């Protein structure tokens, strides 16, 4: 397993943002990490990326412990944080060079143009990031996450802000990346999960309420769409879709 989350808990002050959660992810099976606003998705992803420490429990990425082996974790992980923080004053290509340098990427120039092509940044590559539209900024974030060709990708809402054409392109890219890599992505777009994810983990109020294959989840809840299943598992008591 390339990602192992084992009884992980994060407490902020009085609040348990995630509460004793466990799940695994493996290469070749894109895992959709779903949950309502505030459920604990970003918190979990930040712990996996070594950005914040957990309160209890363990997690590993590519066989390395996120607490004790964070350098090895970073080498093997591409992470797109929520809100995609970028240096707005940098030019697109300059920012790619900066990140490629940090990772010690070999054949830098060739790899940068390969990733610019893969993420469809070609036409915008000479602009400053601050001058890009939201969708193109999102592409830069994805490009930076994959520049070092990591084994594991954790992408927090990678398609947020994309128009329908861009959505299709980026989904195809993610699908391609997910064939060989371990890919976990969070999204609020159920259609996206249906289109590219094989595994689904749903978290609600810090606790896991579903962990199954997409097909298995549909079979065990005699509901037609993932949206209906999501609502039945996460909506406040008394609300359901009929
Ligand atoms: N630094 C922090 N300090 C205190 N509470 C926090 C902090 N970060 C997150 N939380 C709380 O932890 C809970 C989980 O937040 P998190 O960002 O992980 O949710 P999420 O599932 O990613 O939500 P969204 O879909 O809205 O992005 C929320 O109630 C949030 O307010």
Automatic annotation (TrEMBL):
<keyword id="KW-0067">ATP-binding</keyword>
<protein>
    <submittedName>
        <fullName>ATP-binding cassette domain-containing protein</fullName>
    </submittedName>
</protein>
<comment type="similarity">
    <text>Belongs to the ABC transporter superfamily.</text>
</comment>
<keyword id="KW-0813">Transport</keyword>
<dbReference type="Pfam" id="PF00005">
    <property type="entry name" value="ABC_tran"/>
</dbReference>
<dbReference type="InterPro" id="IPR003439">
    <property type="entry name" value="ABC_transporter-like_ATP-bd"/>
</dbReference>
<keyword id="KW-0547">Nucleotide-binding</keyword>
<dbReference type="GO" id="GO:0005524">
    <property type="term" value="F:ATP binding"/>
</dbReference>
<dbReference type="InterPro" id="IPR003593">
    <property type="entry name" value="AAA+_ATPase"/>
</dbReference>
<feature type="domain" description="ABC transporter">
    <location>
        <begin position="3"/>
        <end position="230"/>
    </location>
</feature>
<dbReference type="InterPro" id="IPR027417">
    <property type="entry name" value="P-loop_NTPase"/>
</dbReference>
């Amino acid at each position: 397993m390339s990602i192992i989350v084992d009884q992980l808990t994060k407490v902020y002050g009085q609040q348990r943002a995630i509460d004793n959660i466990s799940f695994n992810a493996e290469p070749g099976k894109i895992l959709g990490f779903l949950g309502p606003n505030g459920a604990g998705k970003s918190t979990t992803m930040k712990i996996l990326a070594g950005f914040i420490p957990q309160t209890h429990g363990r997690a590993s990425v590519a066989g390395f412990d996120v607490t004790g082996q964070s350098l090895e974790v970073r080498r093997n992980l591409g992470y797109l944080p929520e809100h995609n923080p970028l240096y707005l004053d940098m030019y697109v290509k300059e920012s790619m060079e900066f990140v490629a340098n940090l990772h010690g990427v070999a054949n830098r120039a060739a790899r940068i143009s390969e990733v610019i092509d893969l993420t469809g940044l070609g036409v915008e590559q000479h602009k400053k990031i601050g001058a890009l539209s939201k969708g193109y900024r999102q592409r830069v974030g994805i490009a930076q996450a994959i520049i070092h060709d990591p084994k594991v990708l954790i992408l927090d809402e990678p398609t947020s802000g994309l128009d329908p054409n861009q959505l299709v392109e980026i989904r195809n890219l993610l699908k391609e990346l997910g064939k060989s890599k371990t890919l976990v992505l969070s999204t609020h777009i159920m259609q996206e999960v249906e289109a590219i994810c094989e595994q689904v983990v749903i978290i609600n109020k810090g606790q896991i309420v579903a962990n199954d294959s997409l097909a298995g989840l549909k079979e065990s809840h005699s509901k037609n769409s993932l949206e209906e299943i999501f609502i039945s598992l996460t909506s406040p008591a008394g609300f359901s879709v009929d």
